[in-house]
């Protein structure tokens, strides 16, 4: 009888967070999947560098939906909090990535390509809102643009 080689379903998992409680729930779910598969978990957050491009119009348009991160200090605080939650949820190998001056969708897709991820995890916040339906949302846009598995976690 031929021995079957064990193959992990996922070797690398990417998850995005903006520091909101709902995005932390997506991080925890991604950590559970990564931990069970023995995969590396890449936790990412996108931010605008201070003195960089203006975020005023976007924040004004999104109002309560905007979790604007300006400068890298808050971004790293968010990543460290997310990594703590990920460890508690079962991830063993975690890498934190703060991505400057990119919108969240492009930041996640670029990271997926850069680390050759097998799975992208996002929360569903904004997916069923009117703004999300008209203008698009992170979950729907990454699901459309990613060429890997996308897990949309029910977080709201």
From TrEMBL:
Leader sequence segment: none
CDD domains given in the database record: USP-like
UspA domain: residues covered: 10-154
Entry similarity comment: Belongs to the universal stress protein A family.
Xref: PANTHER family: STRESS RESPONSE PROTEIN NHAX, UNIVERSAL STRESS PROTEIN UP12
Protein name: UspA domain-containing protein
């Amino acid at each position: 009888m031929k021995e079957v080689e064990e193959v992990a379903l996922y070797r690398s998992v990417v998850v995005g967070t903006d520091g909101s409680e709902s995005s932390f729930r997506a991080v925890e779910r991604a950590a559970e999947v990564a931990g069970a598969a023995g995969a590396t978990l890449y936790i990412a957050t996108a931010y605008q560098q201070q003195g960089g491009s203006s975020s005023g119009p976007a924040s004004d348009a999104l109002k309560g939906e905007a979790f604007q991160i300006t400068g890298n200090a808050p971004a790293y605080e968010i990543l460290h909090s997310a990594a703590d939650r990920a460890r508690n949820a079962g991830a063993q190998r975690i890498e934190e990535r703060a991505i400057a001056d990119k919108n969240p969708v492009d930041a996640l897709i670029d990271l997926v390509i850069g680390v050759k991820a097998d799975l992208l995890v996002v929360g569903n916040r904004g997916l069923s809102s009117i703004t999300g339906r008209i203008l698009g949302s992170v979950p729907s846009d990454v699901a459309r643009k990613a060429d890997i598995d996308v897990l949309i976690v029910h977080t709201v």
